[in-house]
Amino acid sequence: MASSSLNFRLATVEDAVSLERLINTAFRKDDTTQVFLSADHARVDVIDVNAIISKINQPDCAVLAVTDPSTGTIIAHGSVRKLDEKRAWFGMLAVNVDRQKQGIGSQVLAWAEQYARSHWGSPRLEFDVVNTRAELIAWYKSRGYQPTGDTTPFPYKYHGDWQGVLRDDLCFINLGKDLEGI
């Protein structure tokens, strides 16, 4: 899918409810056992409306809303924030479940890379991904991202009654890519 057929814009507070629905639905689509123990994990949310509004209002943070111009519907999301003078952080890539596997995620990632370079002069973009998401890690590696060697514990405490729903061996691995020449 060509980027010219989509609208890329910064999200507004008015987008928060739609973004919350999009992100949680996209993350729940994982029907593997890479993160969840079974396909029955509808009660697990990864973000709420207040957290989205907080990100939208955060200085040095850009929350992307990708819309389908024919409907005005938000179909994808990503966020990028400045960590320091040398790095920006990418987060929460989510694509509408009916629009996945069409190249939209690659376009969101490219947008984040370009935004980090052009707005903050960030020479590097980093983010984390759940260690058990082998296909997703491979997807990022095919786009030039490599493990940094850093890991972060999985925040089980933010997922309420996670036992019996989420695997208990999760952590995040950090991936990064130098953005020189992008």
Structural commentary:
This protein has 182 residues and is α+β, with helices and mostly antiparallel strands. The protein contains 4 helices and 7 strands, in the order βααβββαβαββ. The protein has helices at 16-28, 49-57, 104-120, 134-141; strands spanning 7-10, 61-67, 74-82, 88-95, 124-130, 146-153, 171-178. The protein has a 7-stranded mixed β-sheet, with helices on both faces. A hairpin with a 6-residue loop joins strand 2 (61-67) and strand 3 (74-82). The longest helix has 17 residues, at 104-120. The two termini are 21 Å apart. The mean pLDDT is 87.
Number of strands: 7
Q: What gross morphology would you assign?
A: globular
Approximate strand percentage: 25-35%
- Low-pLDDT regions: none
Number of helical regions = 4
As a percent range, the share of helical residues equals 25-40%
User: Biggest sheet, in brief?
Assistant: 7 strands, mixed
Radius of gyration: 16 Å
Arrangement of strands in the largest sheet: 1-2-3-4-5-7-6
Terminus-to-terminus distance: 21 Å
The pLDDT mean sits at: 87
Please provide the ordered H/E string of secondary-structure elements: EHHEEEHEHEE
* Structural class by sheet pairing and helices: alpha+beta
